[in-house]
Design goal:
Elements: H1 2-33, E1 36-38, E2 44-47, E3 52-54, E4 57-59, E5 68-72, E6 81-84, E7 87-89, E8 101-103, E9 115-117, E10 126-134, E11 137-148, E12 155-162, E13 165-175, E14 180-184, E15 190-191, E16 195-200, E17 206-214, E18 221-227, E19 234-240, H2 251-283, H3 295-303, H4 306-336
């Protein structure tokens, strides 16, 4: 009788305890499952040689101190970084990340489990998984990392004169991914280029060049800005070209030159026709002899050149002597008759 009462007493006390234990375990399990792993919704961009922080946190905010936090890429076992049981593990870490990763623990009590990667390399580009496990509950998020290489400072050179202005070229090399080049005036407005070339070299990096023709009193002061595809930051060089280097053209000077050219053309034509007429008179001199003593002949002689007058004067003298000889001959013939 006593033993049966003892067993019944034990059963009555153990059943409520078992219920409490199961209930608390179930509640703990539900609580451990009530978190999500949150990462950035946009790709993250890093620059080669710099450090980058890959953001990741729990929602709602709770301590991750006693959870497992694993950052990995393609292989779950060979990780980028592993935190578990309150400390970091490096045994199976990927060789290229050794001594280059750090889990930021300053905010781990608030669920911040961001990873810092030191001295970014181009090979670091890709997808990263932020995986968190608490008991049998786990969740993860994926984020993309873009890696950029900033090339050289743009080199601006003045090439030659073109289209009434000065042809200016801007060049830069060592960029990844393909950069964007922009000409800008002092107010920051974009200026149209006349040419642009880009080429990827054997090392995977890009070199680029662009050119512009600047005119006097318009864009004599300008800058060449080259920036990365992912980042707003870039590199810039500026140049100022004094007005004295521009081809100097005065409208009045142009008009004067045109007038002088026209007058020179007329002068050449006049000289040509005068020489042509002089040659014609000399070649046809006998036709002028019958009229050499007339007023018309004298007027013609006075209107031509000095040298023409000399030729005609000689011809006139010859004409006079010729007449005298003919008159003397006629007188002799008459006396003889």
């Amino acid at each position: 009788m006593t033993s049966s009462l003892w067993y019944s007493s034990m059963a009555s006390t153990s059943i409520p305890g078992l219920i409490i234990f199961c209930t608390s375990f179930y509640i703990q399990k539900l609580e451990s499952a009530q978190f999500s792993v949150i990462g950035p919704d946009q790709p993250v961009t890093a620059v080669v040689g710099q450090d980058i922080i890959l953001s990741c946190h729990l929602s709602p905010r709770m301590s991750a101190e006693n959870m497992e936090v694993r950052w990995f890429q393609n292989n779950f076992e060979t990780y980028v970084h592993l935190y578990r049981d309150g400390r970091d593990y490096y045994e199976q870490q990927m060789p290229k990340y050794q001594k280059r990763t750090e889990l930021l623990k300053d905010g781990i009590m608030d669920g911040n489990i961001s990873l810092k990667i030191l001295n970014i390399e181009r090979a670091d580009e890709g997808q990263y998984n932020c995986f968190v496990q608490d008991g049998i509950t786990h969740d993860e998020t994926i984020l993309d990392l873009h890696v950029a290489v900033l090339g050289s400072v743009p080199l601006i050179s003045v090439e030659d004169y073109q289209d009434g202005g000065i042809h200016v070229v801007c060049q830069s090399a060592g960029w990844f991914p393909e950069p964007k080049l922009v000409w800008r005036d002092p107010s920051g407005q974009h200026l149209p280029s006349v040419s642009e070339t880009k080429a990827q070299k054997d090392n995977g990096l890009f070199e680029a060049a662009t050119s512009i023709v600047i005119k006097e009193y318009t864009n004599s002061s300008l800058s060449c800005w080259i920036r990365d595809k992912y980042l707003s930051q870039g590199k810039e060089s500026a140049v100022y070209i004094s007005d004295q280097f521009f081809p100097w053209v005065n409208p009045w000077m142009v008009a004067l030159i045109v007038i002088l050219v026209i007058l020179s053309g007329f002068l050449v034509l006049i000289i040509y026709f005068c020489k042509l007429r002089t040659s014609s008179i000399i070649l046809n001199l006998p036709t002028y002899l019958p009229f050499c003593l007339s007023v018309h002949c004298l007027y013609t002689i006075n209107t031509i050149g000095v040298e023409k007058r000399r030729h005609l004067s000689r011809a006139g003298k010859n004409c006079a002597s010729c007449g005298e000889r003919k008159e003397s001959q006629s007188q002799v013939s008459e006396s003889s008759s």
